[in-house]
Design a protein that fits this description.
By secondary structure, the chain is mainly α. It is built from 8 helices and 2 strands; from the N terminus they run βαβααααααα. The relative contact order is 0.15.
């Protein structure tokens, strides 16, 4: 996978927490190696297509990567991700399932989001999303998979 090096103390959120005394680390200038955002997004695409069950956190992560961080689809990274792991890629869902979901599949996605996100979001934030039918997460995933289709990515 493609990676990127970061100096821990120069990451905006970390430097802020260090400055206000909320975060102490023994080696603030350590270099942290992470996958690129495009790699992370392609991991999420593979997970939604392949995992036997849906995880609500994947919907949130895709929303964050696409909406907040504006990460584009890199078709070559997505295609490579299908072949990257030791286990063969086995699709349990199609790109079309997410690009143009049926009402039944939308309900399945909502259930997955509800079941998982209560562990990560404050109750009042989750309540707002629940009231809106988790629309921002579902729309982010729909648009992502439309982009995947438009870029010519096909399941192996």
């Amino acid at each position: 996978p493609e990676t990127k090096n970061h100096v821990l103390s120069s990451l905006p959120a970390v430097s802020y927490l260090i400055a206000v005394g909320e975060f102490r680390i023994p080696r603030p200038h350590a270099v942290v190696v992470t996958e690129t955002l495009e790699e992370l997004l392609s991991d999420k695409i593979r997970s939604l297509l392949e995992r036997p069950y849906l995880k609500g956190r994947d919907f949130y992560d895709i929303w964050h990567l696409r909406t907040v961080l504006d990460v584009p689809v890199d078709a070559e990274v997505v295609k490579r991700k299908f072949d990257l792991y030791r286990s063969l890629f086995t699709a349990r869902r199609t790109i079309e399932d997410f690009a143009a979901p049926s009402l039944e599949f939308r309900d399945t996605m909502k259930t997955a989001i509800e079941r998982d996100l209560f562990r990560f979001l404050p109750p009042e934030v989750l309540a707002v999303h629940r009231e809106e039918g988790f629309a921002v997460f579902l729309e982010a995933v729909r648009i992502l998979f439309r982009d995947v289709q438009e870029k010519g990515v096909a399941l192996p």
